[in-house]
Write a structure and sequence with these properties.
By secondary structure, the protein is of the alpha/beta class. Helix content is about 40%, strand content about 15%. The protein is built from 13 helices and twelve strands. The model has no long low-confidence stretch (mean pLDDT about 95).
């Protein structure tokens, strides 16, 4: 089949672009022709897959108008699922027009009306740990934060928590991610100037992010909303403990009983978890074991099989 992937973040290091590139590899492996585009200009295809109902709405609308009987798949991202679909008319229309929808973790299904849930499939994002032999430092207790600097990520929460660590702590926060505005870059540099425990690394290629995870003791996700963060998949398959805000997107990946949650914006609670992780080896190992137990759910072969099944539903003779 000829498949078009529409993503509003074409050729960037944002999550949607990383997802689109991985899906292109998967779909090509399944024998399909795949093209990634930022906009739809009337190109011929057998299936159109649009990441983000609101931001890709122009492409969805044109494809639906030009080819109303051809399969349309709409992927619900974090801001889609937990914000836009509640009030944005275009996002709501895109969901109605979709033949199938995708969410990246099972808790996302709870955000959808029953008639939409019935045509929605869960496809967890797979990840591959680094093969490089990386030694964790002994002089510092490194905590990684992986995410671009934008408000919805609450990017400096871990830095603020690090400020409150006791003087005996070896904790250091290593933050990988691009500043998506001048204001965020100024804030990151200002935080480094006053906070010796915080280091902003800027935008890193994926292989360097994997190395960062491999040498870190844990990862912190402080986002206000996530559809199913690929960095959590990466941490899980690396056996890395994850401390996260108690949000649906993380609960769907880590489980409701995960011991490493804190409430959105709660610096003190995050700081307490970081102290426990550094000073209680058994607690840190408990969370590492949780990641190891979950790792098979994020295996590449499961993601490949999920796509094969989804396409077979839409075009039984073409998948």
């Amino acid at each position: 089949m000829n498949i078009l992937l529409i993503t509003p973040a074409a050729r960037s290091n944002k999550g949607n672009w990383i997802t689109a590139k991985r899906w292109r590899r998967i779909l090509r492996r399944l024998g399909h022709r795949v093209t990634i585009l930022k906009e739809y200009g009337g190109e011929s295809c057998d299936v159109l897959v649009a990441l983000h109902a609101r931001k890709s709405f122009a492409a969805i609308e044109r494809f639906h108008s030009d080819h109303p009987s051809d399969p349309l798949i709409v992927v619900q991202t974090g801001t889609d699922l937990y914000r836009d679909i509640r009030h944005d008319a275009n996002a709501q229309r895109a969901m109605r027009w979709a033949d199938r929808m995708i969410v990246l973790q099972p808790e996302g299904l709870n955000e959808l009306a029953p008639e939409l849930r019935a045509k929605t499939r869960v496809i967890r994002q797979s990840a591959t740990p680094t093969r490089a032999q990386v030694t964790k430092g002994k002089r510092t207790f490194d905590v990684c934060v992986v995410g671009h600097l934008r408000p919805v990520k609450d990017p400096f929460r871990c830095a603020l928590a690090a400020r409150t660590m006791p003087s005996s702590s070896r904790l250091r926060v290593l933050h990988a991610g691009a500043a998506l505005s001048d204001e965020m870059e100024v804030k990151a540099r200002a935080e480094m100037a006053v906070n010796p425990r915080y280091r902003w690394l800027g935008n890193l290629p994926q292989w360097k992010v994997r190395q960062l995870m491999a040498r870190s003791r844990l990862m912190v996700l402080s986002s206000e909303m996530e559809g199913g963060a690929n960095v959590v998949s990466e941490a899980i398959v690396a056996g890395l403990p994850v401390v996260s805000t108690r949000i649906s997107g993380s609960i769907g990946m880590l489980g409701a009983d995960h011991p490493g949650y804190f409430e959105i914006g709660d610096t003190a609670a995050l700081a307490s978890l970081l102290v426990r992780c550094e000073t209680e080896p058994a607690f840190l190992e408990q969370m590492a074991e949780r990641s190891r137990e979950l790792a098979p759910l994020f295996d590449l072969e499961r993601e490949v099989a999920a796509w094969r099944e989804l396409l077979a539903e839409l075009i039984p003779n073409g998948a």
